[in-house]
Amino acid sequence: MEPLTISWIGALAGLAIAIILILKKLNPVYSLFLGAIVGALIGGANLEETVNILVNGTQSVMGTVLRVLAAGVLAGVMMESGAAETIAQAIVRKFGGSNGFHLDRGHTCHRFIR
């Protein structure tokens, strides 16, 4: 079985459709899936190949998506529970205030040096 190649016209058409649908306020997930389906069909894949492309592509990024979501949930829980503040205070106590960093309201990091 030879590898499937989608033409660049199909890829660009799918991308354009996804962008247009997102700008029309359609849910981005649905827009991207519709753009991928239409792009693959325009690019030369049949319906079975299009479904296989979508399934394989989704499976290949699922681990990364889950890691990002888990990190976001963990960070949110730490912020809400006060654990992040406790950890920050422990680090400052361990290394001392003069060896710490300060983040000002402009999100610029300044190192305290004595």
TrEMBL record:
Coiled coil location: none
GO cellular component, one term: plasma membrane
Top-level taxon: Bacteria
Keywords: Membrane, Transmembrane, Transmembrane helix
Pfam families: GntP_permease
GO molecular function annotation: gluconate transmembrane transporter activity
Residue intervals passing through the bilayer: 6-23, 30-47, 59-79
Name of the molecule in the record: Gluconate permease
